[in-house]
């Protein structure tokens, strides 16, 4: 056993070779230590603002926003730094930052958090990033020694006469080495003192190691070489080392790698890439695309495969979310020929297959569809596409209850995506609302990590499939509450302190003096651990409470609340769900169910807003199609998937109707003479 362990450790050591490169487009932060060093590096060395995306692979909205996030990172490459944290792998950072919904985006400047929000609103990410970059460009400046000297000579000659080089350098050193917010405050103070006059500034340059032109570089290099020899002699002989020595060496090398990686920031982004729609590379038929498919779920991608194989060169216009299936981290068990796969994996394979046959992707939200004149117009945030035919496969979105507290607690405990946010409530008590397949899947996903799951259903029997319903009913961690509806979601308002601790707020906004002595020792330690506050050697509960109270008092003091630029920082405040008020529909009795999170799974509404007034819709806003086809009320416009199906709503039926739509579109285009000779 010892021999095999030694071989394994030798293999790990051999693998620890760093590949240093340029700063990546999007940095993947894998440990909390790396997260801390990353923020510190850009606060002290580059001064660049930092944007961080908290995500998981099973989160549909996370996947939707990923290509947009990467595009923004490319756009702001020299002005901001973009990173991402997978909460399933870097749990410590997610816990420390109290991430309660995904995707969540944080915005930092000089190591201080400026803003945070949850959701896939790309316009909001762009707006906040632009604002952060503008602030950074204003504050991330440097006053050089020569500029300060020249300023005093011109505007304060008497002062200049009193100052020698050391005093000038002391002023700059006090403001901060290499520039940054301290230099901004220096300029601000001088402007105030000298009637708006200030020294010249330049954009702050990242601190670099000594170069060839540095007079000290040669000595430093010689010292380094001598030191290197000494270090090499002190390194353990790995062939003679004990297991303990090798484990210590691995830990040391990992820490060294993290330090180097923060400085070099090697690219390890793994966002999948597919052929992108580029207007200049397209061959149009009579001034327009043959077919544009709106939607990238099973219906849209199945249509793309069939249309591409028919030589129609389809354009798939939709964010890379892949519809409802993309948000399902559960196993796909009812799609023929697919075993041991998840929703996101199935969608990825569909995208890959469509791309192989010639489909291209416009990964932007469609903002306008005009089918009133020909050719049709499909407008996205980036493009204006003309098309002879359109396949609408926009699917459906989660339906909400519309009860008091639901909107206020979204992102703070109320969610519609268990695979996105469920892990964030590990070992907590949670609620699922609904009685269909989606509710069953959510309950089973949550039961893997939550302390308990209560399923609230308004009827006395599930409408879900028997297989899923039986699994829920027999699961030891799941309790079903029949004949029950939600009256309201209730909770508390909390304030997030700079050290990561939270305090409860009363209705007037004052801090509630919580009785921490009633908390379990385990819970006190969890709060301290999440904030990274040491309590080494403290074992008694009373002493732990003192540590917690002291950390809260320190974080609330005005001296701590500084944004790094001489201005007071604003505390982040959030709503946190604590209970669900429920009502029995038969007895009328109202009860309060304690819960840290509630997941609403009560069905979906079709995404047909863009065609209202242009296509015939039924009373529930689903697109009306002609029997036995995918044709709509407008010639050349076809519909497939959940946008036209309120009965079956399965991935396999959506894929089938997607194939139908492509075949119908090909036939119609051929009849109208819009097909290319190759098709």
UniProtKB/TrEMBL annotation:
PROSITE patterns: PYRIDINE_REDOX_2, THIOREDOXIN_1, THIOREDOXIN_2. InterPro entries: FAD/NAD-bd_sf, FAD/NAD-binding_dom, Ferredoxin-NADP_redctase_2, Pyr_nucl-diS_OxRdtase_2_AS, Thioredoxin-like_sf, Thioredoxin_CS, Thioredoxin_domain. GO terms for biological process: cellular response to toxic substance. Transmembrane segments: none annotated. CDD domains: TRX_family (cd02947). One of its GO terms (molecular function) is oxidoreductase activity, acting on a sulfur group of donors, NAD(P) as acceptor. It comes from the Eukaryota. Residues 213-222, 248-264 have a biased composition (Basic and acidic residues). Keywords: Disulfide bond, FAD, Flavoprotein, Oxidoreductase, Redox-active center, Signal. Coiled coil: none annotated. Residues 8-150 form the Thioredoxin domain. Residues 195-275 are annotated as: Disordered. Residues 1-22 form the signal peptide. Belongs to the class-II pyridine nucleotide-disulfide oxidoreductase family. This is Thioredoxin domain-containing protein. It comes from Hemiselmis andersenii (Cryptophyte alga).
